Amino acid sequence: MNDDLRYVYAVCRPPAAPLHADLTGVGGAPPRQLTHEGLVAVVSPVPERDFGREPLRAHLEDLRWLAETARAHQNVVAALATVTCPLPLRLATVFHDDSGVRAMLEDESERLHRILDRIDGHVEWGVKVWLGAASADGDGSGDSGSAAAASSRAPRSGRDYLRRRRAGNAAREEALARADVFARRLHGDLSRYAADARLHPVQSGPLTDAGSGRNILNSAYLVPRTWSEEFLELIGRTEGTRPGLRVEVTGPWAAYSFTDDPDAREEPHGGEGAARQDAGGTP
Amino acid sequence: MSASDGHAGPGFAEPFARREIALVDVLDRLLAGGVVITGDITLRIADVDLVRIDLKALISAVNAQVPSPWPTAGEGGGDPGGRGAEPERAIEREAS
């Protein structure tokens, strides 16, 4: 077992309450807490044959393996979040041994403390806005509905076809513009209830549920735990106000999207943080 | 709003453990979020030996690098460029 590596899920402040006894981490081993210099790293042993640099690289190309690992990681972080306010580490942060983890805690201590200060007492909520919902029938109110109805009859001529096509395009663009206005306003409103906000790239990849429609907004909000209720109520009030638009909420998450260094963000560019996508600190 | 069913409460203990979260949402956070311990540390401390993998390539594979609707805070107003840059796939799906 000595050739095992150390997978680190998150860092938090001591004393972290004990983790549930049957909690398992990546690879099935139970995570434990490694305390060093006022910080706790939550770690579990992982085999070198899977998590050494080369095998890890290969595994990460495998969506099934990636999905399994990501879920195990999220599982541990979520369990931690029920007892403390964990600072998640990037997926697949692996050290050779405990002393490597300790050295990291020591060397990164100031930055980690700064971020822990920021997220303390907060949770992350994800909000997505979708245009054109799952069902072709249910949501067909407004222009998209009439466009659909029109196109259900066969065009009488080439000109007729082109006319319908133009009408369809115009309706789509208008719907998109309205969705955009709605999303901006929602984002503005929600940001006022949040300590911080991030815009993630909209979801469109192969993993996105094909029936979801078009993703207009994909954002994350760092919300004081005590404000979560108001935050969700605010979203609830938008329900049904815009036909064809759907608001989806995920969370509460640990503060995955707010792990960049607060200090670094004060630097020159000075832009208001909200629009910094990918701010998660990609090196 | 669809996902607040049953776990919207601000109560802290239970909401974290609940139904399975969509993989795309998990990966959205885990591939782009979380503190990155950079390789520089390995250089500074001889025996840290961090096994670090750059996930950037993967992020593009899983979640096509679509520009955010509003690239910078400064640019108010519409964003025709950003829209135009969205992958064909999204448009195709909408058209079908």
CATH class of the largest domain in chain A: Alpha Beta
Largest sheet of chain B: none
Derived structural class of chain B: mainly alpha
How does the major sheet of chain A shape up? 5 strands, antiparallel
Structural class of chain A: alpha+beta
Unreliable stretches covering 5 or more consecutive residues of chain B: 1-18, 39-49, 56-96
Helix content, binned percent of chain B:
25-40%
Uncertain segments of chain A of ≥5 residues (pLDDT<50)? 134-148, 267-283
- Please give the number of β-strands of chain B: 1
- Give the ordered list of helices and strands of chain B: HHEHHH
Tertiary shape of chain A: elongated
Q: Helical stretch count of chain A?
A: 8
If you compute it from the alpha carbons, what radius of gyration of chain B comes out, rounded to the nearest whole angstrom? Answer: 19 Å
CATH architecture of the largest domain in chain A: 2-Layer Sandwich
Please tell me how large the radius of gyration of chain A is.
23 Å
Count of beta strands of chain A = 9
Distance between the termini of chain A: 32 Å
Strand content of chain A: 15-25%
Q: Tell me, what's the shape of chain B?
A: extended
